[in-house]
Each structure stands twice: as C-alpha cells, then as structure tokens.
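Trans-aconitate 2-methyltransferase: structure tokens wanted.
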Amino acid sequence: MMGTSWDPELYLRFDDHRARPFFDLLARIGATAPRRVVDLGCGPGQLTTVLSRRWPAATVEALDSSPEMVEAARGRGVAAELGDVRQWLPAADTDVVVTNAVLQWVPGHTALLHRWLTALPAGAWFGMQVPGNHRSPSHTLARELTEEPRWRGAVALGEEDPVAEPVEYAQLFAGAGAEVDVWETTYTHRLTGADPVLAWICATVLRPVRDALDDAGWAAFRAELAPRLRTAYPMQADGTTWFPFRRIFAVARRG
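Answer:
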C-alpha cells in the first residue's frame, strides 16, 4: 500500500462484494458507547460513514496513505487524514479500531498488531480483515506472468504470502492478553461483464504493476493476463463468472 497509487473509482466498481467482509467483521465488534473509533486504511471512505452511523456519539478518526483515497473520503464528508499506518498509535480514548483489507500491504504487520493492541485501553476492541487468496489463480497467474522474460525486471509481485494464517493471528492476540475471535470465509462472488476477475485485481493486487509500466506496457500486460484468467475463471452460459475469494478475520478485545 505504501507508495502505491490508487484509483477510487476502479476500486468501487465491485463495492458490494468488497463491502460484505467489512459488515461481517463489524458484526462481531461488541462496543456499545466508544469514545473514539478509528478506521485504519479508510480508502474512499464509503465504509467509514458506516462507523459514524453505528456510533454517532463517537469521534471517528480515518487514515489512509493514498492522497487519491483521502480526497475521495473527504468528498463523502469523512474527516480523513493522509498518513502511514506504520506510524500510527492509538490515542488514550481509542475504544474501537477497524482495519479492513489493509494489512496485506504492510510487511511485518504482526509486530504492529501487538504494538497497537497493547497500547489500547482496557476493554477496547480491535477488528481486522485481510484477503487470504495469495495462492489463488488470480494471484499466481499474475505472478507467473511477471516472471516471464518480457516482464522480468520491469514489474514484480512478491512471492511471499503477505498475511499470516488464522491460527497465527489467534496466537498473537491471545498472547497479548486479549479475548480473541478468529475465523475465515471464502466468498463465492458472482461477477458480470468482460474479464471481471482482471478488472477486480487491476484495482488491488496489480496496482504496483500499473505504477511500473507506461500506458502501452500496462495494456500489453493485461492483454497477456486476460486469457489466462478466463481459463481459470470461465464465464458461465448466463454471462456470469464465479470468483472464490478467501478472507481472514480477527476480532480482539483488550483485557
């Protein structure tokens, strides 16, 4: 996420699908009257407004590293600030922290989780959600293409899985003295349109590739990747495409 450019409009193309894990996460956070609620990695802010509606008496703090996303969030009335989550620390009155589909972009984020949790006041809630699809065809096919002679050295996608397994997050939070609830869900999204899986990953995992290439190179890269994704995720007779997407969730309450 750090140093990567973002396109809020492209990201929101699949907003219904991207938002569902956020609501599933939020449903397990039991705070009733928090003083301060923080959205770390608020993106275009459409979900930050949900936090304000759930806890109208709370101060809602929003942070994102993308100027484009911060601008989009402010356009929705969110008091978003530009900043790096790696430098963030909770204020003394922070009772809820939510980070949704962000930490996969932050190397070494498990150390951050321990630091954040131990800095929160007693009774505070922390909720996180990250994609767990690093080994799915949508990602492996993109990585394989970047390793072919034409693209090797020009673009790169990391081989190492950027997120931990659910049990590792459970152990981390429990080791910090928190009550913890960890689970995973594989959503089977029904997508429509031409090359919908390519469109999905263009808004997320392929952003570093887009930043590394000029317009012609970006078009060529997508043209090579598209037929491979069509084979892995074939369009059905009714014109829809099924896209399984694994997500990992953790909710911790500070002891």
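The chain has one domain: 8-253. The chain is about 35% helix and 20% strand.

Cheers.
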